Amino acid sequence: MVTPPSVSITDGHLDISVVNMTGEVDRDTTRALVNATTSQADSTKAIESLLQGECKRPDNVTMTVQSDFYQAWGEHLSEETGYEVLSSNPADGSSNLTVDDTAETARVYLNQSSLPPRTNDSQNSVIDVTNKSAYMQNVSITGNGIAVDKNANNNYTVYAEPVVDDVEIGTIRRVSADDNVTRRPLDVVFVVDESGSMGDDGPMGTEKRESTREAIRNFTTYLDSDIDRVSLVGFQEMGPDSRFPYDHPNYGRIYRTNGNMLTNNFEAFNDTSGGTLEKLQADGWTYTAGGMKKATALLELRSNESRDKIIVLLSDGKNTHNHEEDWWVNGDTYESGQTYTPNIETYSGEDETGTNAATVQMAKLARKTGVTTYSVGFGIQSNIPDDFLEDVADAGGGWYNYTSNQDELREAFKLIAKRVSSTQQIGRTPLSTNLSAGGTIQPPQITGNTGNVANVTKNGNTFLNANDPLAPSSFSHSFSVGGGDMVNFSASTYSCNEWVATSMTKTLNGSTYPVTRCANMSTTNATTLDKNNVSVFTNTDSAAFNRNISGTNTSGWQTNLTDAVVNRSLYNRTSNKLTLASNEVLVLFDFPDGKNTDNKMLMLYTVGLSDRAAPTGIIDFEVSNVKLERGS
């Protein structure tokens, strides 16, 4: 049994209460139990049934009571509303109360003016940015701004946030040790020609062997003795002597530093008074395979997978030995006078054919175990086997430099040092968004402890780095604007004085890249996006939005923008239409391009209220589910 409803109407607010009773009644004792859970669920369902479809945001309310006691209901509703009982609806559409004897009904009609003011869309804060609703007076959208007005003297709360919590604007950049970022430790083996010609003076009057020592010493200044190690291997071919009584011994020699094949004691390694580099010889002929064999074996024995392994091979001439000789590399034989193409070049018909091919093959095989080989030719151009040394470097994954004098040699070693001591990392560009309204700047806000988030101050405003991957939360903007106030969108990128490594990584094409953040940003060389790099989109701009997004190049370490708007239910991938709420726009920021990325960011901007939200305080419908039980 459902009891007759209890109805009250106060200031346009309609309260309806009904009791749904089930069970049995005992003539002596009966207990009534209220089920709070089902009562709440049924009350919510009743409200949702009333406020849906075109009635989700009603501009009028009609309540009709059909009952044998309809006249009593009319008297009750008259007391509640203060309306006189009429027999028919007035022609002016005003709120009224009618009683129909034929239908046996009492009916209350409340028009817009009788409902709470918050339900009046011409006066409240509901916004339609497409300007298609009658309650909107004007919506103005420029290239980088929006203004709304209802001629209601309203203030509207605005809120802006990135569509993707982690903005990910940046690029893959190569950073050096002095950029204050972490990298993998290095094991570097210098493989140096010790033939007799290395004792000759170079074109600038300095012995070539000494120029090589100085180039290596300068190389080590780019390394970190806390994590990096170096080694020295010499190579030459000697005639028979007391050490090598047999003909044509090829000689690869590891020079130890304090008994260690690899050392981080750069001072002892570089010491000009008897240090490791001072042990280099200059006698005999050139024989690169001997040096490569020692270097690759050393790294295989003493290094490991946690370290980046580097070989720098230097020679001032061609391999020379006027005799036949065989080399065995990983089960393959390389003989004098035969023809081999281990990489790019073909080696054929000379005594040195096997030595050349074996050297290239060793560099190629070492590359498969993580060793990168660079090569340097030093001396008179006609004496340098450029094609061979370039082939070695190509097979080893490095590069080749020809150098004619000690200055060029020093520069070549410097370039290699800077490359191997640097690392490719994802640098998150320091940036800050900037919203302004009525001449007031609105910097971004970040919830939480921002003590470690970089910032800059401009014109008395503090702008936090909105692209810091370690920020405690995503950034946002929240403030209020008056009707007709233009809100402009802008953003600036900044230079970084200090890059710092994070524990975060991103994987791209099978390679893992550490992510770095800017810990100290500067206004030096700051760039502010102009209005041509900012776009505003409403639901009516779906075609333009598609054109902007479809041609966007997003790197594999960044979130795809289409996926982002779909995941936020802002875009329908099937219809290719934006599905924004009535008070929402998307703002597209086009930052300077990075490596393989267009660096675009989407912001969701909300002003006022959406017409999707049902207004509260119009109708309250309370259902009480009561079960009757016989008493014991």
Q: What are the salient characteristics of this protein?
A:
19% helix; 632 residues; 10 helices; six-stranded antiparallel sheet; alpha+beta
Task: Summarize the structure in short.
With 632 residues, the protein is an alpha+beta fold.
How would you sum up this structure, described in words?
- The chain is of the alpha+beta class.
- The longest helix has 16 residues, at 353-368.
- The protein contains 10 helices and 36 strands.
- The chain is 19% helix and 37% strand.
- Helix 5 (288-302) runs parallel beside helix 6 and helix 6 (353-368) packs parallel to helix 7.
Q: How are the secondary structure elements laid out?
A:
Blueprint: E1 6-10, E2 13-23, E3 30-34, H1 36-50, E4 61-66, H2 70-81, E5 85-86, E6 96-100, E7 105-110, E8 138-142, E9 145-149, E10 155-162, E11 170-175, E12 186-193, H3 208-220, E13 229-237, E14 250-255, H4 266-270, H5 288-302, E15 308-315, E16 326-329, E17 332-335, E18 339-340, E19 347-348, H6 353-368, E20 371-378, H7 386-396, E21 397-403, H8 406-420, E22 423-428, E23 431-437, E24 440-442, E25 445-446, E26 455-458, E27 461-464, E28 475-482, E29 487-508, E30 511-528, E31 534-537, H9 542-550, H10 561-567, E32 571-572, E33 577-578, E34 584-590, E35 600-607, E36 619-630
Parallel strand pairs: 2-36, 5-6, 12-13, 12-15, 15-20, 20-21, 22-30
Antiparallel strand pairs: 1-2, 3-36, 4-7, 6-7, 8-9, 9-29, 10-28, 10-35, 11-22, 13-14, 16-17, 18-19, 23-24, 23-29, 25-28, 26-27, 29-30, 31-34, 32-33, 34-35
Helix pairs in contact: 3-8, 5-6, 6-7
